[in-house]
Design goal:
single chain, alpha+beta, 5-stranded antiparallel β-sheet, 4-stranded antiparallel β-sheet, 9 helices, 12 strands, 22% strand
């Protein structure tokens, strides 16, 4: 596949909790493509998005949406029906990967280590703890640590959790409850069929929540992570295997917790992000840069991957999978 010039529709924004992140990702992508001589149509997703995509008549759509409905298969299904070529993962992969419980069901049987846990009704938290403290509760299908709460023995939530205490239980009917894994936050990007590096994330205070991810100066990124080589290699192997098992396309990012008191047995995959951020603070561009791939080159590679996959599907006379 040649390097263009292409006409790329950059789809961004939307109405999820991650809208600001998506707008930042999308604008970065658009400027990078323009700097390489490509034509760009910016589309801030609204309810008329199908008509606007149709009018754009672009060669490919760069999906820079984060969260629902841009990352959960909804927009992917729409673009499939429209016959559009788009970046990142397809419908089936997106449906599974956005749902943390479905992700476990897809990966754990293949030997991918993930925390235990189960789905609970939020209202039951006001009656009793679902797991021994400390434990984590999080929405089943939100990204960027939106709505994550760590319930500790001496925390401020009460025991049981108070009905009027702010937390995800007030905003979501169902939550995923998991044992809390002490230790260190690690992440690995995959580009195409290659795991890049391992980054350790060290929040200046608290844990790696939404604000820590997207506020400059709140988290130290150590890349490559200062960890034993066997842990680094395990992160890359697990990230690549998860990427392949789920059928991810383009770029993905796998997030881990590592209990460094337990060695390799303390490493757990938390989730796979099928449309990782492309903001100035984002981890995939950072890892790519460490390997000599600048931001614009990274964006072009993701677009080229989509165009190549589309051409392959057309040759085989089939529909896009993943």
């Amino acid at each position: 596949m040649t390097r263009g010039p292409w006409h790329v529709a950059v789809l961004m924004g939307g109405w999820s909790a991650e809208r600001p992140v998506s707008l930042s990702s999308g604008e970065g992508v658009a400027k990078a493509l323009e700097s390489r001589g490509h034509k760009v149509t910016r589309i801030d997703m609204d309810r008329d998005v199908a008509a606007r995509l149709s009018e754009a008549k672009a060669d490919v759509v760069f999906n820079a949406l984060h969260g629902v409905p841009g990352e959960d298969g909804t927009v992917q299904g729409m673009m499939d029906l429209m016959g559009l070529t788009y970046t990142h993962s397809g419908l089936a992969t997106s449906v599974i990967a956005i749902d943390k419980q479905l992700t476990k069901q897809a990966l754990v049987p293949h030997g991918i280590p993930m925390p235990g846990g189960h789905i609970i009704r939020s209202a039951t938290l006001f009656e009793a703890d679902p797991l021994p403290r400390p434990y984590v509760v999080k929405p089943v299908n939100e990204g960027s640590s939106v709505g994550v709460a760590i319930v500790t023995e001496g925390g401020n939530y009460g025991s049981p959790i108070g009905r009027d205490v702010e937390g995800p239980w007030l905003h979501f009917e169902e939550l995923l409850a998991e044992p809390y894994i002490r230790g260190r936050e690690l992440t690995t990007a995959v580009l195409g069929d290659e795991a890049l590096l391992v980054t350790e994330l060290r929040p200046k205070s608290g844990f790696y929540d939404f604000d820590a991810k997207y506020t400059d100066g709140m988290t130290e990124h150590v890349c490559p992570a200062e960890i034993p080589s066997e842990i680094g290699e395990a992160c890359k192997a697990i990230a690549l295997r998860a990427h392949q098992l789920l059928g991810c396309k383009g770029a993905s990012r796998s997030d881990f917790r590592w209990d460094d008191n337990q060695g390799i047995e303390g490493l757990y995959l938390l989730e796979v992000n099928t449309q990782p951020g492309m903001t100035p603070l984002s981890l995939v561009p950072e890892q790519a840069a460490k390997l000599g791939i600048d931001y614009a080159e990274l964006v072009e590679r993701i677009v080229e991957d989509a165009l190549t996959n589309s051409a392959r599907v057309a040759e085989n006379g089939g529909a896009r999978h993943g």
